[in-house]
Write a structure and sequence with these properties.
This protein is of the alpha/beta class. It has one domain (8-317): Metallo-beta-lactamase, Chain A. It has 11 helices and 12 strands. Strands 1-2-3-4-5-6-7 form a 7-stranded mixed β-sheet. Helix 7 (230-252) packs across helix 9 and helix 8 (257-263) packs across helix 9 (278-289). The structure holds zinc ion (ZN). Zinc ion (ZN) is lined by residues 29, 78, 80-81, 187, 223-224.
């Protein structure tokens, strides 16, 4: 089944909807809507108030019950899935305990706004995040948390929440609707793009892929990218298994993580967006193998990723002149 990857609300059937924002790159996240009668649940909000407001208007127009969002589930703490929480001041917000803790430590939107204002026009941050409005965001944090697994219902519809992280972040949660065989994965699945490993370990992410593959699931709504199915999860698992093996070889040979990221051939995933994420992803494998507990410094990682296209071009040039 091919789903169109267009901005807006996509009807998955039986009161389940995906709200997609193409093209899925940095900050362009998806969210979900589940409606039974007058009962409503939103899976994630968007990166800013404007985008979240626009999304809510679209939802309310197509599904009138969505005018009142009763419950929000945040799949993880990143701003592109939580900054819009404040648009729904009365909604109950549920997340894993780890996600609630991480939200206390993410860079506040106002700090992002100030950083963007100061960034020079050619800055990578401006290129990747310049379209978003970080001013005027009132952060809302989870009002209820769970550990491990919990289930809730929207009308008669059963919803299972599985804390599957740490992988992309510590608190990653899968939102599974077993009766409908639909799963909202948050950023455990990036469709048609390189995933980005912030927390790791990568082996836990491979476990998360296996977990999804074992469930009875027909439709997968990823955190970024088009609506997909288990085949995308199987490919993602292959990516991580391959990445791990290739990074491990280079680690054992004494190569540093950055050189390894540039050297590893990812041709079989060449259609995927954001290859610069090889940098944090290889670094995550190195941390895992060397049992380094410290987390990556996000702004340093972004500074390295900003060099990717230039360095890859130089690399290609050097190869062609050899
Ligand atoms: Zn995201």
């Amino acid at each position: 089944m091919a789903w169109q990857y267009t901005k807006g609300l996509h009807d998955i059937g039986n009161g389940i909807y995906a709200y997609l924002q193409s093209n899925g790159s940095w900050g362009w996240s998806n969210s979900g809507l589940i409606v039974t009668g007058e009962d409503t649940l939103l899976v994630d909000t968007l990166y800013d108030m404007h985008l979240t407001g626009e999304m809510h208007e679209t939802m309310s127009r197509q599904v009138p019950a969505a005018k009142t969002i009763q419950t929000i589930v945040n799949t993880h703490a990143d701003g592109d899935h939580t900054n819009g929480n404040g648009f729904f001041p009365a909604a109950k917000i549920i997340s894993s305990k780890s996600t609630a803790e991480e939200m206390q430590h993410t860079v506040p939107p106002q700090v992002m706004a100030n950083m963007l204002k100061k960034a020079p026009p050619e800055a990578y941050m401006r290129k990747t995040l310049g379209a978003f409005h970080f001013d005027g965001i009132t952060q809302r944090f989870p009002t209820e948390t769970f550990e491990g697994h919990t289930s809730l219902s929207v009308g008669a519809k059963k919803i299972e929440l599985f804390h599957i992280g740490p992988a992309h972040t510590d608190g990653d949660t899968l939102v599974y609707l077993p009766q409908d065989r639909v799963m909202f994965t948050g950023d455990i699945v990036f469709a048609e793009a390189h995933p980005v490993v912030w927390a790791g370990p990568v082996s836990r992410w491979i476990y998360a892929c296996d977990f999804i593959l074992e469930q009875d699931v027909n439709v997968i709504v990823p955190g970024h990218g088009p609506v997909t199915d288990k085949s995308a999860v199987a490919t993602l698992k292959q990516y991580f298994v391959y990445l791990f093996e290739e990074a491990e070889k280079r680690y054992k040979a004494g190569m540093n993580a950055l050189d390894a990221a540039y050297e590893i051939n990812y041709e079989m995933f060449s259609s995927w967006k954001n290859p610069e994420r090889m940098i944090p992803n290889v670094a995550a494998v190195y941390r895992e193998i060397s049992q380094t507990a410290e987390k990556p410094v996000i702004h340093e990682t972004f500074a390295l990723m900003s060099q990717w296209n230039k360095k890859k071009a130089e690399q290609a040039d050097a190869t062609s002149h050899r």
